[in-house]
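User: quick one, sequence for these tokens?
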């Protein structure tokens, strides 16, 4: 590890996350956080340039440096980086790595949404408490003497605008990460991945911020994926039963039997199964 990366890791160690459901992560001071974020953004800028030059392996290295420098509680910033890493892996046809990076990005965005919901709940509680205080003041002082409720501060409007922009940014990165994971899952193939790709494309179909090109891809994939998923399911199920049959034959062979001596029969009335034994097979 380069000295610069080692130093970043050492500084990040100060912000190690506590056990789940315990106290939130320890945060850096504003000055330390700004320094680390600037370092992370510098590496990100270099990585973006490398990506634009089709130097995807080098871009991944720089994005990794950006992740290493970024404080581990800045979930949105980390999600952006991991989504970009997923894009690099897609360009390199590294489907599993693309899936992993996109999933990490989406998990980070889930944390951002959770924190935003908790913050919204806190603000609503504070607003309700303030309204209750005004109500008590009116009752105690008399309605005729009560002053009108103060107008919201201008900085409150700015804060709401910032929150709205963050929500839009989160949705934008979520759409990108879902598109990247869905494609990687579809390319990797297999029953589980194809079913997962279907889920991703279904989630994308309900998002309003897709570009026309992305929406067309989503609609197309939702048509072509179901038969692919079904075929993969049937293939893998047949392979599984084949392996189980081979295992069963290995166990039964010393007794002069095979799995062909046993037949599963479905009871159409109950939907249950019974096993018939045929010595002659």
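Assistant:
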């Amino acid at each position: 590890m380069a000295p610069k990366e080692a130093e970043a890791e050492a500084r990040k160690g100060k912000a190690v996350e506590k056990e789940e459901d315990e106290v939130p992560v320890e945060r850096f001071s504003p000055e330390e956080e700004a320094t680390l974020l600037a370092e992370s953004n510098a590496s990100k800028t270099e990585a973006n340039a490398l990506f634009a030059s089709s130097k995807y392996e080098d871009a991944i290295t720089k994005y990794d440096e950006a992740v290493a420098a970024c404080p581990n509680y800045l979930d949105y910033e980390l999600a952006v980086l991991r989504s970009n890493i997923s894009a690099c892996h897609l360009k390199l046809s590294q489907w599993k790595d693309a899936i992993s990076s996109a999933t990490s990005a989406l998990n980070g965005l889930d944390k951002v949404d959770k924190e935003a919901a908790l913050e919204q709940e806190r603000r609503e509680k504070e607003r309700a408490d303030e309204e209750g205080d005004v109500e008590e003041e009116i009752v105690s002082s008399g309605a005729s003497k009560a002053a009108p409720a103060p107008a919201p501060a201008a900085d409150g409007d700015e804060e709401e605008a910032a929150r709205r922009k963050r929500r839009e940014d989160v949705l934008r990165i979520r759409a990108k990460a879902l598109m990247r994971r869905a494609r990687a899952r579809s390319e990797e193939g297999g029953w589980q991945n194809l079913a997962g790709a279907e889920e991703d494309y279904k989630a994308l179909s309900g998002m309003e911020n897709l570009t026309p090109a992305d929406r067309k891809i989503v609609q197309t994939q939702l048509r072509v994926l179901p038969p692919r998923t079904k075929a993969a399911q049937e293939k893998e199920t047949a392979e599984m039963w084949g392996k189980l049959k081979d295992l069963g034959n290995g166990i039964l062979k010393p007794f002069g039997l095979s799995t062909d001596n046993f037949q599963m029969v479905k009871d159409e009335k109950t939907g249950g199964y019974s096993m018939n034994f045929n010595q002659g097979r």
